[in-house]
Amino acid sequence: MRGAFESGICVSGLVAVAAAGEKLGSVVVPEGSTGLATVCGASINGVLLKAGVTSDFRFGGVLEIKDRQPRRFVAITEYAGTSTDPSEQFIQAKMTSVGQAARTGSGKILGAFRTIPAPAREVVQEIKLKLSAVGINGIYALGDISEPLCQIPVALNRVGLIQLGGLNPVAAAVEAGIEIENIAESGMIDFAQLRDYREL
Questions:
Q1: Based on the structure, what is the number of domains in the chain?
Q2: Closest Cα to residue 135, out of 45, 35, 48, 10?
Q3: Strands (E), 39-184
């Protein structure tokens, strides 16, 4: 997990931790376990909406990166076609190589693709900088107006946006053979409860 945090291929290096019997969001940590919550990409959606930026979530997928740059999605699941988080499906299917991507800059990580209205591009760039200042770096790539992004076509007067998956650190742990139960998008946590992963 540490490698995923250090290499910047996760939404944030901020996490929340809870012992058995304590709550993280809406989940009570079971006996014999420790709970770890990562920042979900949906948090960015909330910030964009509050700034008046609507977006069209297209799909979640496995994003191939090379030299720390996004290249293409090698697997996708449209949000309209699933009742579970696509990231969980890809982790269970062992389709990621987040650990390798963290070490070498090349591999397969979790990501999501959405589009925003063209006039909002500058606003999103400003939001990206503000989020980064508080430790949230989930906006991985922002395309040009009406131009494809990572080989994904974008409609006229729209801009493609690639978000990092909040479960990338979890995927790295699963790849390393650690037994983990994922409970994606399991509630709200006060920002003040989050701690830098290096403090753990």
A1: 1
A2: 10
A3: 56-66, 69-78, 107-117, 139-142, 158-164
Single-letter amino acid code for the residue at 1: M
| Residues 110-144: b if buried by 16+ CB within 10 A, e if exposed | bbbbbbbbbebbeebeebbeebeeeebbbbbbebe
Domain that holds residue 42: 2-199
- Show Cβ contacts of residue 103 under 8 Å, excluding neighbours closer than 6 positions: 3, 7
CA-to-CA distance for 64 and 107, rounded, in angstroms? 6
Q: Are 40 and 85 in contact (CB under 8 A)?
A: no
Query: Which residue type sits at 35?
Result: G
Per residue in 59-76, pLDDT tens? 999 999 999 999 999 999
Q: Is the pTM of this model over 0.90?
A: yes
> Residue 80's pLDDT band (boundaries 50, 70, 90)?
confident
Containing 38, the helix (H) or strand (E) segment is strand 35-38
Give me the pLDDT at residue 183, please.
Answer: 78
- The pair of structure tokens assigned to 28 is 């009570």
- Greater model confidence, 83 or 115: 115
| Residues 170, 168: Cα–Cα separation, whole Å | 5
CB atoms within 10 A of CB 34: 11
